[in-house]
Design a protein that fits this description.
single chain
Length: 305
């Protein structure tokens, strides 16, 4: 009897494991769609309040929502490192600001692909394995196809490209400091960091848009940007991160440039050339490859263990 029950128990156990993982994968995919939908909505606000105003909306309202929800002031923080928290928050604010500035002149999918190079360079920093250099070569190939180095008809705006690459640098800094801030502040790190980022972004928004930021007709769109770009995806990603292995999470996240490109085509009527699509695919493959090989030990490491 025990021999018959064992396969059944194993099957039930595997199903109970697969279900949460499938749910987590779905949450991560929804978060990516939400994030890029929020970016598309923000771009529609540019004619009224500019990229600076849209950033102020996103971070300001997101901070307000998170503060009311989390209420971090209820927890003491006398022994915490405020320098790390401020570095994390300021990097978040700068990253969002320059990313939205890039969207003024280059397509969403390309901006996200260029921004992705920041975490990629961070992940590949100090690489020694031959396979890692394949991913580096793919990133270089993707950048060569995207950067305005040639006189083709669809050359990208160099200023927009520089803003997107700056956002990538901010993303890399955000990852490094975010890990430290998360260790010190736990779940409150996102709330406090977003609030600090808002302190950086709001003055730029006021300087550019002024009283237009207070327009009641724009408030629903601004709330949509805040929820779709920050509150919802951050919450879903946090749940997914606790359910998925880090390598699986990172591999799925590499699909974000493709999601952004599709969102740009569907929601913003942006059109990419075949070479630009090829460049985005190259960066996606490099990101997925880096994630899949990041935690795979080398032969020397395996023998050492």
């Amino acid at each position: 009897m025990g021999g018959l029950l064992s396969p059944v128990a194993t099957l039930m156990s595997s199903r109970s494991t697969v279900a949460p993982i499938a749910l987590a994968v779905g949450m991560l995919l929804i978060s990516m769609i939400s994030y890029q939908g929020g970016a598309s909505l923000a771009k529609h606000l540019f004619p009224q309040v500019g990229a600076q105003g849209a950033t102020a909306y996103r971070l300001g309202l997101s901070a307000l929502i998170l503060l009311l929800w989390r209420r971090p002031w209820r927890r003491s923080g006398s022994q915490r490192d405020w320098r790390v928290l401020w570095g994390y928050g300021l990097s978040m604010g700068a990253m969002n600001l320059v990313f939205y500035m890039s969207l003024r002149t280059i397509p969403l999918g390309i901006a996200v692909a260029l921004e992705f190079t920041g975490p990629l360079v961070l992940a590949l920093f100090g690489s020694r394995r031959m396979l890692d250099f394949v991913w580096i070569a793919l990133v270089v190939a993707g950048l060569a196809l995207l950067l305005p180095l040639r006189g083709q008809m669809q050359a990208l705006d160099p200023v927009g490209v520089m803003y997107a690459l700056a956002a990538g640098g901010g993303w890399a800094l955000y990852i490094v400091l975010g890990k430290k801030a998360g260790a010190a502040y736990g779940p409150d790190a996102v709330t406090l960091g977003t609030s600090i980022g808002a302190l950086l972004a709001i003055p730029f928004g006021i300087a550019h848009a002024g009283s237009a930021l207070l327009s009641p007709t724009l408030l629903p769109y601004a709330l949509g940007v805040a929820v779709l770009s920050s509150a919802l995806p951050y919450s879903l990603e946090m749940v997914a991160l606790t359910q998925l292995p880090a390598r699986t999470f990172s591999t799925l996240l590499s699909l974000e440039p493709a999601v952004a490109a599709v969102a740009g085509v569907a929601l913003l009527d942006e059109r990419l050339s075949p070479l630009q699509w090829l460049a985005i695919v190259a960066i996606i493959v490099a990101a997925a490859g880096t994630a899949l090989s990041a935690q795979r030990p080398t032969l020397t490491e395996s023998l050492a263990n």
